[in-house]
Design brief:
By secondary structure, the chain is an alpha+beta fold. It has 2 helices and 5 strands; from the N terminus they run αββαβββ. A hairpin with a 3-residue loop joins strand 3 (about 75-80) and strand 4. It starts with 5 loop residues before the first helix and ends with a strand.
Length: about 110
């Protein structure tokens, strides 16, 4: 069963807080839904033109694996797009409940 309500709010807040510690990213949009595979949606943009997307992908994986999903069964995928990449995740924070989402990271192309 998907988590809802306050738990979903808390997960979104946790993502935004941890991502705000990465100075090369900024949150453009929050998009929470009730789609089972995309309960949390964030749209981010690089702050620098020509930023190192490999470094961003590595940091996203580290944040998910070592901080947010450290104590649960979880997985993630990264898919390159024309404008950057999509980081999809899902995890089982409590018995019988799950969280899922997608974070889109866009390259900065103009000033």
């Amino acid at each position: 069963m998907p988590i809802v309500g306050r738990d979903q709010d808390a997960w979104e807040t946790d993502w935004v807080e941890v991502l705000s510690e990465l100075p090369y990213l900024r949150v453009l949009k929050r998009d929470r839904s009730f789609q089972l595979d995309r309960m949390i949606g964030l749209r981010l943009q690089m702050n620098y033109i020509g930023g190192n997307m490999k470094m961003v992908k590595d940091d996203m994986e580290r944040v998910w694996s070592e901080q947010l999903a450290a104590d649960m069964d979880a997985f993630h995928t990264i898919t390159d797009t024309d404008d950057g990449f999509e980081f999809q995740f899902a995890g089982l924070p409590k018995k019988g409940e799950y969280i899922s989402g997608m974070i889109t990271v866009l390259q900065k192309k103009t000033r």
